[in-house]
Amino acid sequence: MHINIPLCVRNASFLVKDRGGLVEEINHFQEVLKSFKGQPIDLVAPLTPSMSNNISTLIFGERYDYDDPERKSLDRNLDEVCKIIGQTAVHIFFPWIKHIPFLLNWLGFEKGYKLFKVSNDIFRKKVEEHKKTLDKKTIRDFIDSYLVEMEVRQKKDAKTSFKEEVLLGCVSDIFGGGSETVRVSIGWLMYTMAAFPDVQKKVQKEILEVIGPDRNPEYQDQKSMPFSHAVLLEVMRWKSIVPLNVLRYTLADTNVAGYDLPAGTIVMANFWAVHHDPRHWEYPDSFKPERFLTPDGKSIVKSPHYMPFSIGKRACPGETMAYMEIFLYFVSILQKFDVRFPEGYKPTFEGILTITYKPPSSKIRFIPKN
User: Fold this and answer.
1) 300 in a structural domain
2) Residues within the annotated binding site?
3) Binding residue ranges for heme
């Protein structure tokens, strides 16, 4: 299933080229934030539907109203499944447990499977709708792109891995991974800006100098905003949104750092350990955006030990799209709002570990700028 994801994303050029829908969604999200008039809010509530709308636009070719029951079902199921199969779940370290029925019940797998099936039924319905309305000359979204590619591949090879069931798996992977990780990243950025007001002011100064108070930010602005870019990179290192990569296994006998790994060995990458290794990062537990800047502060310097989206052939295929979303939301919010904690709140940077590493549950004020 995962082999096909980068191929499909590469074919679906609209994933990164058609940004009109993303800008529209960000503008709508800002209006929602304004409606709270600077009162403390749980950012997760308005951010969750906004994130899933970006993904559903790319996959299904449509966005949902924030109160749409189908969207609520997808987001609710994703949240519950993330809790059930969280990073600390026993089955990750002892995969054989999944073959013992009563333990599956105890671990919540039966509930997780039912929720997954509800979401998968929605995805299946979307695929059927696309099959009925497909126009090869007008590719609307990811599903269209996959269906066209699937037809081409099946004509060449009846045993191709491009199949409808694999498409459903790809849609599920992209919807889950694409909305959850970006939402958590933006959550940490806002939490960090509220905790470090001096850094926030410096980012806002750069926004005014490069973009101004009114123009919609564009992804290419990132090249002219080294400090804002460095803040984004540092938060994603410091808080490592996905601390542990999903399980992989070796396809052949290999050797890594002197250790022999037979074919079929389960491998898990510990990104948190790499991002907090004092051999590679000075004061790794401290928030220091300048570590990603040249001494003059004018250019970005990336470390080879920076890997929030993994590395190599199994790196996240949606990395470019994710960076674009995170940057545009981050800059757009700080362009229009001052971000603060409620009076008396003392931030703690101990997050909540599920499949991702989430910021602490807290309320934040988004005060509209004049």
Assistant:
1) yes
2) 316
3) 316
